[in-house]
Amino acid sequence: MVEPSERFEELKIPLSEHVHGLEETTGVLGIPRWWPTGSRVSVVLCHGATEDMDDPVLTGLQEGLAQNRYLTLRFNFPFAEARKTRADSMPVLRRALRAAVALLMRDPTAAPAHLILGGKGLGARVAADISTSRLRTDGLFLMGYPLHPQDRPEKLDPDQLFRIVSPLLFLQGDRDRTCNLDALREILWRVGAPTTLHVSEGADRHFRVTKRSQRTNEEVVQELIRGVDDWIQEILGGTV
């Protein structure tokens, strides 16, 4: 008998307001082969400003987390769905993320018990922003968080982090030129929410590594999967 495996289904997410002439955007739902009743955990993944939902980091994360029994959803922000190069405004991005979460919660019999938001680059900012609203989240992981403009650590923009109350995981490459690690560590001392920092050695803000690092981009993604999984297990008390 063949063991059931994870399934990945493309779906359409209705938008609350038309953007770029769009009524909906595209998402991919990762369905684990077994999803325990009562402790179901969903993870929603938000892409960055220069990618779409098919960013290899997000697709790799989705596959790995689905294998670890998480219901996962990655989706396109409207600008990516419309193939625009300029990102949408924060209110538009927020509404799109809310629409993605609403889709997961639509069926109360299958709705997750826990919601984790994750984002990369711009998506990390959107996830952080919406978590300070009335949307209840159990945790937030931010990958390649843009703490300041590239190579301008004196122009820090950390204010939204101080308003977050959910547990926070930062996943940063030590070659990320938009997030000075010393500045980030100093800020994390002042953040009220529980925080964890995971640094990927040799990785840039897209979590790409050079040949000199003697490891591959795929190995970095596996490192991220382990980091996110371990952190979720910790904040939820190992209920997954």
How would you explain this protein's 3D organization?
- 28% of the residues lie in helices and 24% in strands.
- The chain has a single domain (7-235), classed as Rossmann fold (3-Layer(aba) Sandwich).
- The longest helix is centred in the C-terminal third of the chain and has 19 residues, at 217-235.
- Helix 1 crosses helix 6 and helix 3 packs across helix 4 (122-130).
- With 240 residues, it is an alpha/beta fold.
- The protein has an eight-stranded mixed β-sheet with strand order 1-2-4-3-5-6-7-8, with helices on both faces.
Number of domains: 1
Give the termini distance in whole angstroms. 26 Å
The total beta strand count reads 8
Low-confidence spans: none
Q: What order do the strands of the largest sheet run in, or round the barrel if closed? A: 1-2-4-3-5-6-7-8
Q: Averaging pLDDT over every residue, what do you get?
A: 93
Strand-residue proportion:
15-25%
Report the CATH topology name: Rossmann fold
Q: What CATH architecture would you give?
A: 3-Layer(aba) Sandwich
Rounded to an integer in angstroms, the radius of gyration calculated over CA atoms is: 17 Å
Helix fraction bin: 25-40%
Shape: globular
CATH class: Alpha Beta
